[in-house]
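Appendix C reproduces, verbatim, an entry submitted by the partner laboratory led by Prof. M.T., so that reviewers can inspect both the input and the predicted structure.
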Amino acid sequence: MAKSKQTFDLKKLSKKLDKIYVDGLNTLGRHLDKALQDNIKAGGDPTFEPLSPVTKRLGGKKPLNRSGKMMKAVNKTPATKSKQVFKLTIKSKYGGLHHTGYTTDPKSMIPNKKVPARKWFMIPKSIQPGGAELEKVMTNIRMQIRSAWKKI
């Protein structure tokens, strides 16, 4: 019977891999958050439907960008070693309503007005499979994993 010899420490490798995965997830999460902010600033991709004349009279100039609140509507929860998930959530009901579209309240200043959906809370193409940002992060993760194997 052939004998095998273990030349590495699985515990050390596991700790290194945890850190690599958490760092990679947090890097992607930061890219995604920045992409959401940039999408709002740019007026959407695809371009948001223009503001109605009523909204313009109320002081709006660009969709989702009148008060600056939408830029702060995303809550970030970074990945940790114990919970390897980077989470982005919409903090306000307002952000969710704009993403899906809604009708204003009958008792509001502009009653029963249909507000179009403005899909702003989306994963950009650069972070989807085949996207440049995702490929950069994945290449970095692969290099770190190779390095971790060599240093055990």
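Strands lie at 74-77, 87-90, 102-103, 114-115. Additional entries are available on request from the coordinating office.
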